[in-house]
Design a protein that fits this description.
- It is a single chain.
- The longest helix is centred in the last third of the chain and has 26 residues.
- The strands form seven sheets. The protein has an eight-stranded mixed beta sheet.
- The protein is built from 22 helices and 25 strands.
- By secondary structure, it is of the alpha+beta class.
- The relative contact order is 0.10.
- It is globular and about 75 Å long.
Amino acid sequence: MSELFDAIDALVASRAPLPPPDERRRLRKAHGLTVEEVATALKVRRATVSGWEAGKTEPRPPERDAYARLLRQLAELYPPPAAVAVPTEDAAAPAATTPPHPNEPATPATPATPPPTHVPGTPAPGPIPKPARTSAPSPVSARPAARKAASAGAPDAPESRFANGPLAVVDVDAEGHVLAYCTGGLMLEVPAKSIPALVEWTLREAKLGQPRLSGPGRDADPLLVLTGAALERYGLPAALSDGERLAGRIAEGHKVVKQLTRAGWKLTKRGFGPWARIYRPAQGGERSCVQLCIPSWNALDPRHWGAAADLPPAELARVLGVYASRVMTPCGSTAVTGLELMTALHPPTRASQPDADGRRHSEHNPGSLGSDPVDCAPCEAPDGHPLLKDLPRFHVRGPGEKLFEEAYDWARPMTDAECTLRHLVGIDVNLAFAAGANGLNVGLGAPTHVKSPVFDPKLPGSWLVDLSHVDLSRVKAGKEWVELDGDLLPSPFTPKGERPTGPAWYATPTVAYAQELGYEVRPLEAYVRHDNGRYLDGWYQRLRDAYLATMADLGVHADMAPADFLAAMDGWAERDPELAIVVSAVKATVKGGLGKLRERPRGEGWRPGEPWRALSRPTWRPDIRAAVISRTRINLHRKMVRHAAFTGQYPVAVLSDCVVYAADGTSPLDVLPYRDGKPLPGGFKLGVNPGLVKHEGTQSVLWGEEVRERFDAPELNLARYIKDGTVTNVDDGE
């Protein structure tokens, strides 16, 4: 009889009900899970889970029953949003609301009114429509894509509580009216007479904000951008004094700060500065918080936001709105926003299953960095860290004590043969560090110290190992050994391209590359992280999609033929300077966010050996930053090796993600080997996607030799100046 029961159980499992493919994907993302994590739990390949979510294949027993169980549990936590009744020309229906987060109260829907032209949060790339002034926010109709989603039961229309988009630029017109310029060309009249009243109006009437990026996360706070005229109206200085600029805020005794205090509002520790956050402590799970951005106080750094601070209100709303809809609502500098994006996609906690009393509790969110900071390994600690307080005062740590994983800054003198060529051509890797983060396994928890470990290329960590025996004159490229001129290549193991001379600390991708080149590695010790995962995958995908969508708006599309791509890149920024600002901000978000993972002391009266403020963050993770930089540098070196093995050409200079070659022509096509329109496998490829390359600039060989003679520097890094030939000490990282 038991055999019959087993057969019945197997039959039921073989037909375990599953939701549609789109719902499977929604549930996974709502819980902050990656495809890799689901595949690991079910002991299948990543591609298998992707196939299930795409509807290309269906799971079979025994995985089907386990997969169905996972989806049932996720469906209990994240029920599907209610369907939207889409307004037609003859009638309008109420806007949809999504189920509230366990810690937030439900927000009632508001009656629908005739819709404006654009959808908040998704500004069109073309000319900005003339703003339509209204005294109260009005709901917005669904786009065709939203109509299609509504009919399928999974609408993507904005929620009624965020009907007017994520942000508004507050200005005062010639008649003295205070106006809020929202995304999509909408303009609201603002009745508030003071900053406290402005905050109240924003939270009660403006309908600004943005839905959470992950199920366990929280919605983005509304953002108000104050122009110079708005600052004057509300009693704030048009610019910060020198003392205020150094402090990063206006004085606590300022009348506006006192107004906020009397009204029961609080400021975060950074005070009332360029990115002020005004809030009241949460009551009953209700969050009351507004973010301010003050461009004239240098909130929008021109290195990353170009001339955004000088744009008229409607145009500034468009720029910030595109960034908000594709990345997230800005909440500080691009570096701060890049770091916050990581947390928004992987919140540290989530709501638990209901207990015996039906109550949910906060618990650790798997795949996140958690709520508490963890100590780094001593080798990963930057100088001055509390872990190093017992070192002698003027002790300088070498590679055997400190992890030196940084981007390339390497150059060499040109050979006689290269001097006979006419041009130097620079190629630049698109979003190189984002591409380095894609698919990278990083540590999630604290390190474990191991003596004489066996190297595991899948285990994130820092390894003390001697790689001085790796000879670049004979390496494996793919599966074959190749002979190269190793003196013309930078070492993959040091930022300056010098060959290591003994044991040194390296991140996992660097040691794994030594194995890939065909050499044995024997670590002496290591700090490894057994709790690990692909924490940055969602972060990479979000920024990649933002970059590609904005470049497509500017006429540069993925999968273009090489010549077409080069033509499209010629003058791309001039086609729409405002969208070009968004591209710059997205790039800065990548590099700045990774840099924040190892933020150093910023004044604060800090002394070496004492902790600084950033160390209290769970996202202070120098090991993750080191792993991304390591992988980015290795990716670049792998391409240079493949290129040298196939063409006999070697780089003259490398700076971060830019490589310079000597060539007879001025185009990257005079450097990169294409056959029948196809690039060298594993080598450089022209294109807009992250990891592919674009033309950085071309100068003459004579220019390069003249520059080096003028500065009496045979190894001056020409990659730093190849873009326009102007020789400065500034490195913009592009």
